[in-house]
Amino acid sequence: MSELFEKRVSRRRFMGGAATVALGAAAAACAPPGTTSGGGGGGVAQTNKELKVLTWNHFIPEFDKWYDPWVQDWASKNNITVTIDHINIADLPARFAAEVAAQAGHDLIQMIGQPSTYLFEHSLLDVGDIVSYAESKLGALDPASNKIGKVNGTWRAWPNFFINQPLLMRGDLVQQVGEDPNSIKGWQDVLRVGKKLKAIGKPGGTAISHCNDSNHNMRSIMWSFGASEVASDGKTVTVDSSQMRDFLTFMQEFYHTALYEDVFAWQDVSDNQWMDSGNGGFIHDAISALNSVRGKTVGGVDIYGQAIIYPPMVSKAHSSGLDMPDYCAMGIWKWSPNQDNAKKFLRHYIDNYLLTFQQSRDYNSPTHYKLFDKGIYSDKSVGGEFLDLPKFTPLSKWKGDNIATWGYPGPPTAQANQVLAQYIIPDMVQTAVRGTTKNEVDAAIKFAVSQLKNIYIK
Predict the structure, then answer these.
(1) Backbone phi, then psi, for 255, in 5-degree steps?
(2) DSSP annotation string for 377-401
(3) pLDDT tens, 310-365?
(4) pTM to 2 decimals?
(5) Can you give the residue range of the structural domain that contains 65?
(6) How many domains does the chain have?
(7) CA–CA separation, 32 and 27 (whole Å)
């Protein structure tokens, strides 16, 4: 087995999420008075001589190779000096918190994975005019985007895209164990088939660890049982429920009989590498895992060609499925001296919205769901040259009531962000699957109740 699957998480990495949120909360609380007023540049003198952009290292490298020159071309035509800084997705929250503390840094930020619009509410500019412009051009934002971008009635960011996290299964292996790939509709089906795949040495892989993917994947399965960490009021802790116990009992069986055992130290890239290695029967992750092996063979197998993309898993709790994608949103710091330039660029981005999806090789998904009706996942003239039909068609189901944000069924509050950053749900699951009895489930519930009450009940 490769070195990747022998890794263990260091204490420093284990504690990193909690430290990031603590720093962010402290920075937001200690922000100077001038940063807590709404709109109008917060009294900051505007020079608009340049534009500094902070974003992530896109998981489709070809996108960044296109994006940076595209932004530079726009800047050159508008006599603006632009700087684009890319950093790893895991490092973004700490960088945001540092910039809030310093009241300096970039002008325009791309939040991804867990956009901290509630946490940094008083440091982000009102971008209601940008959202209005986007909706006039592209149609309404989806319901989850409204929860993320609009904080206490004010738009603190424009949610520009999200990243699907579908179930990806090797169709050839499913058939090899005597199963019909079309029979897989819900997580109980995945368990049934996963047991057979593990029996032939091709277990599934999904992180139960301190990484962004784990936060998403565990919630998607959890919600299918009707369980949640908090109620719709965004305050009442709800983990001690029969639905949560059913979920954790399922995860015990799922982990021990269908999953690769060493998933407690996985990072965001690990499930991609597991699938791409040829060892994995299935994962629950973005299609970047497939793009990395597109046009290649592994051990003589065309993994990309054999992989099947599934829509959100259905359940009794959610008859059409409910999953948690990676949401992304663009915001402008209130202390930025280049707010006009930032807004000018956002309008340019909106005017070329479809192009950004095509250049991501259909990895980005639209928050303005009118594009689904136009055929972004069913028509190559819309989705672009890399749209693989009918393989990508199931991605069209990732919209509306089939997707939700962290904090569901409540809003993605600052407290919900803190729960994400401390990886409380993955840790709860990990506690439960360390064994196979009710004792471990009880211990997991007790742990989660204690941790969540520390956050939600002050």
Answers:
(1) -65, -50
(2) TT-HHHH-TT--TTTTGGGGGSSGG
(3) 999 999 999 999 999 999 999 999 999 999 999 999 999 999 999 999 999 999 99
(4) 0.88
(5) 31-163+325-386
(6) 2
(7) 10
